[in-house]
Amino acid sequence: MVKVIRSTILPAPVEAVWDVLRDFNGHSAWHPIVTSSQIERGLPSDKVGCIRKFKLEDGSELREQLLALSDADLAYSYCLLDTPVPLFNYVSHVRLIPVTDADHTFWHWEGSFDTLPEKRDAMIDLVGHDIYEAGFNAIRSAMKLEG
């Protein structure tokens, strides 16, 4: 099992960041590699168990399921159901924590997965850099934040 952890601090109140991230179907509005997304069966995007089906800029399609969502903890978890890349048993956790001395947000994003041994380094880079770090930068841009 591989584990990838990334974190950042955003110069914005935790409530403002949560308003953006809480929408499980909202990533197409801010993540640079996601071109479209929809929740299957017309369920609300905050319904635990809902599945989002989305397309990436390269045309590939993925499906992810919301496993948990907590407004009290400012956190959610999801798993990957279908993907064209060798990520197996992928589960991800997102958590926001207030940085109280500056009214900023600490964003912790981690995922664990299995993969083919020869693809291990490439999948770590894909998840850590192309998804998580790109997501941090995209939120900064979408929310017009510095730093």
How would you describe what is shown here?
The chain starts with a strand and ends in a 5-residue tail after the last helix. By secondary structure, it is an alpha+beta fold. A 7-stranded antiparallel β-sheet has the order 1-7-6-5-4-3-2. It has helices spanning 14-21, 120-142, and strands spanning 2-10, 34-39, 51-56, 61-70, 75-82, 88-99, 104-114. The chain has 2 helices and 7 strands, in the order βαββββββα.
Keywords:
2 helices, alpha+beta
- End-to-end separation in angstroms reads 33 Å
Strand order of the largest sheet: 1-7-6-5-4-3-2
Instruction: Please state the CA-atom Rg, rounded to the nearest Å.
Output: 15 Å
Major β-sheet, in short? 7 strands, antiparallel
Roughly how much helix do the residues carry, as a percent range?
Answer: 10-25%
Q: Hey, roughly how much beta strand do the residues contain?
A: 35-45%
Helix and strand topology:
Layout: E1 2-10, H1 14-21, E2 34-39, E3 51-56, E4 61-70, E5 75-82, E6 88-99, E7 104-114, H2 120-142
Antiparallel strand pairs: 1-7, 2-3, 3-4, 4-5, 5-6, 6-7
Quick recap of the structure?
The protein is of the alpha+beta class. Helices cover 21% and strands 42% of the residues.
